[in-house]
């Protein structure tokens, strides 16, 4: 199986007429605000972030952390739009459609703003190049108008050869702790990682990369990256990933959560605690989730890190990694990590129960939605959003206990 964009549409033409404009869920226990507090009963729902607006294949929702309150919506076709003051800015922020292949698992796949933006006026994109389908990581700046980027300002940091048309990864994010740029790279595609790239430290495919974009041009290598000074690519931070379509950092702790899309049977969420050294091996292709996949002799000598959550393809087929909720609006769900599935629309959550050693609650199904969940996102204040690949953006909310709804689904 491939990352979410390749999945077949499950709910075409879904239209809702909702009381309170909510998509509610069954009442379920919330994550405790801290490790020692008591869980309370809550109900989760989704509220449209922008009424009467339809996007084309939205794959990310993010912010610039510049105090503007703007939301940036990334479309797979190469366009980036802004939602400002609950209204859609009519002109595009940036249009890279002429540079990229759009379709399947390729296109404009990620956007990240420099952590010191706009003092350091850079943002970074991840797309698949039109000429050959390779992954490009490029830096851009804005014009005098902060709502319009300068398409001529491109500076390419990194290109990665893509041997097939799928498993491109796509997410890139700055860590809130070390300020480095992290880039999720898929294993290069086909099926089953036929060349075993995810376990090969001499290729960037199937890895989490970690770059210092401030100390050199186009980038420097952090001195504590695990392959510095030994055989292997210095850019690598972690390995053994199949297709880390969406990952995130807990903005409070700096912990790393990775939604790694599975092959034919299991989807997984991986975890790395803040401060843990690099070099973590998440197991692909030796393992799929917590199960042997192609566990050949060479796998026996490896130290593999198990996922902290998994689900089978009886519940979905393509995980969209999410975020830990750190907003202020709904304190009862603070600390809970939300993630979902592109094919089934299901949304689960779990939370950390202990820190030494790290432990987690059993994942709970929070919402069985009709959405094709391509991505989760955060705004500046830590509120969470969900992108439906077929056009809409929703905010994740906590519902009052009396909320009801009357959906009309047109198929």
SSE inventory with pairings:
Blueprint lengths: L22 E2 L3 E2 L11 E2 L1 E5 L9 E5 L8 E5 L3 E6 L2 E2 L5 E2 L12 E6 L9 E6 L6 E8 L6 E12 L11 E3 L6 E4 L22 E5 L24 E4 L6 E4 L6 E5 L5 E7 L7 E2 L5 E2 L2 E2 L16 E4 L6 E6 L11 E6 L4 E10 L2 E3 L3 E5 L4 E6 L5 E5 L4 E6 L13
Parallel strand pairs: 17-21
Antiparallel strand pairs: 1-4, 2-3, 4-32, 5-6, 6-7, 7-8, 7-9, 10-11, 11-12, 12-13, 14-15, 15-16, 16-17, 18-19, 19-20, 20-24, 22-23, 25-26, 26-27, 27-28, 27-29, 30-31, 31-32
Notable characteristics:
disordered N terminus; 411 residues; five-stranded antiparallel β-sheet; Neuraminidase; disordered C terminus; globular; mainly beta
Overview of the molecule:
The protein has strands at residues 23-24, 28-29, 41-42, 44-48, 58-62, 71-75, 79-84, 87-88, 94-95, 108-113, 123-128, 135-142, 149-160, 172-174, 181-184, 207-211, 236-239, 246-249, 256-260, 266-272, 280-281, 287-288, 291-292, 309-312, 319-324, 336-341, 346-355, 358-360, 364-368, 373-378, 384-388, 393-398. Strands 1-4-32-31-30 form a five-stranded antiparallel beta sheet, with no helix packed on it. It is an all-beta fold and 411 residues long. The protein has a domain at 50-334: Neuraminidase (6 Propeller), CATH 2.120.10.30. The protein contains no helices and 32 strands. A hairpin with a 5-residue loop joins strand 30 (373-378) and strand 31 (384-388).
